[in-house]
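To illustrate the input format used throughout this study, we show a single complete record. The first block contains the structure-token representation of the backbone; no residue identities are included at this stage. The design step must infer an amino acid for every position from geometry alone.
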């Protein structure tokens, strides 16, 4: 990586918040240190605890960055986002399928050009970091060069990112098609080049069942078997018209999800965007397979896709993580995404605490992705991806958070009133990669 590591340790004084890796409810796993010290060395967290306890043991000369009055948490994890849709965010369309036709596909065509891809990848990563997201599961386009450009830019910044070239060989414009064979070959080349290079990881990325032939899904399933530690990402049961279309294209399957299952694409480290119109058998199957639902509330509301059923997910033990789904999603901010997730939960008769949403965006996502202990936590040994949240970022947030009588109230105010402005700084592998103002 181009980024040079600070040679000695660095310390940060602030409130600290993270969730321990326990099977218990996230409330009990919550660690909140009111006057804390975080010590970082060589891109990892070395110590995390009370300022008074740790300050005496700091090696002499260690810089102490004073973030008192702010809250340090692990960097956010966005489990579903499309970097090529950065330039078409906020495009008006009456629903998913017309939105794809009118805006998404023509925009994705531009990624034939690697220079454009590089330019967008740079802006996209800057924007993620401005919003406090340090890891994301990223869709590229069908062009292998779009993934190459993304990984180069992420690797140069030493970010922990998961990405993949989209596979699609039917039901999309000619100019965006691969073939079953070329899609598999290009994906395998990218796995060999990037999976495990520095902090980069690969995700097999069949866009969604209707844009893949059965042969493409079959070859994708073979790759999934040959490379069991890569991720898999796709969309499922987002929109009612989409579900109807899929069931016509794939007769004889029990459900939309069942198609992915039959092709060997449901397993740990597989992440399915939306999961709005699943039934209970699907939810049970997601749980048993260790597959993860990426809940994308701003996108589901923007495109009118439907309300994700949190209560049913909980009843059947389906793993759920949060995601923006830019550019179907209307914001890069995971705080704003929490805000919308909370409202969607209310509308489906459920209640999401702020603690649970912060858990879902950090430790919970890491756990579901098989990355426990590496990201999503401040525990010693973890990679030093963390953010500084500023409860005084806006006049209203300052006024409300000053009256917060509990951690829950403080986190709730940050989730309901916060966005990119609340991210005072972002650190990746121990390096400052964003500072506000
Ligand atoms: N389904 C297939 N492709 C897409 C996409 O790009 N965005 C969303 N939201 N849904 C999809
Ligand atoms: Zn998506």
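Output of the design step:
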């Amino acid at each position: 990586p181009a980024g040079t590591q600070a040679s000695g340790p660095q310390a940060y004084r602030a409130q600290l918040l993270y969730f321990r890796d326990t099977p218990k409810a996230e409330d009990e796993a919550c660690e909140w240190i009111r006057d804390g010290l975080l010590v970082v060395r060589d891109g990892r967290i070395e110590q995390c605890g009370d300022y008074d306890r740790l300050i005496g043991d700091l090696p002499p000369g260690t810089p102490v960055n004073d973030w008192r009055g702010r809250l340090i948490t692990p960097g956010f994890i966005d489990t579903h986002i499309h970097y090529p849709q950065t330039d078409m965010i906020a495009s008006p369309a009456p629903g998913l399928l017309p939105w794809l036709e009118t805006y998404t596909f023509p925009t994705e065509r531009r990624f034939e050009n690697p220079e454009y891809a590089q330019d967008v990848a740079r802006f996209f990563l800057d924007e993620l970091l401005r919003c406090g997201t340090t890891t994301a599961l990223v869709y590229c386009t069908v062009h292998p060069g779009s993934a190459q450009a993304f990984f180069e830019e992420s690797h140069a910044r030493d970010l922990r990112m998961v990405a993949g070239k989209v596979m699609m060989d039917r039901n999309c414009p000619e100019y965006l098609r691969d073939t079953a064979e070329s899609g598999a070959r290009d994906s395998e080349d990218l796995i060999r080049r990037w999976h495990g290079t520095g902090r980069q990881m690969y995700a097999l990325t069949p866009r969604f069942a209707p844009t893949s032939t059965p042969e493409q899904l079959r070859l994708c399933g073979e790759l999934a078997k040959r490379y069991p530690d890569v991720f898999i990402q796709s969309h499922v049961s987002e929109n009612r018209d989409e579900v109807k279309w899929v069931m016509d294209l794939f007769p004889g399957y029990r459900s939309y999800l069942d198609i992915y299952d039959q092709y060997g694409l449901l397993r740990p480290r597989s992440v399915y965007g939306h999961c709005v119109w699943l039934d209970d058998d699907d939810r049970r199957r997601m749980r048993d397979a260790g597959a993860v639902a990426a809940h994308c509330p701003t996108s589901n509301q923007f495109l009118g896709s439907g309300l994700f059923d949190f209560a049913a997910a909980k009843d059947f033990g389906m793993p759920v993580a949060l995601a923006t789904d830019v550019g179907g999603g209307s914001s890069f901010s995971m705080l704003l995404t929490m805000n919308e997730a909370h409202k969607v939960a209310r509308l489906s008769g459920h209640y999401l605490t702020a603690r649970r949403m912060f858990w879902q965006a950090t430790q919970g996502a890491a756990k579901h992705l098989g990355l426990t202990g590496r990201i999503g936590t401040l525990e010693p040994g973890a990679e030093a991806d963390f953010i500084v949240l500023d409860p005084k970022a806006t006049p209203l947030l300052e006024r409300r958070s000053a009256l917060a009588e509990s951690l829950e109230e403080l986190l709730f105010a940050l989730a309901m009133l916060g966005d990119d402005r609340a991210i005072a700084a972002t650190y990746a592998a121990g390096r400052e990669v964003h500072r506000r103002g």
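Structural context for interpreting the output: The CA atoms of residues 393 and 422 lie 5 Å apart. The pocket of guanine (ligand 1) is lined by residues 82, 96, 100, 104, 207-208, 235, 238, 299, 325, 328 (CB under 6 Å).
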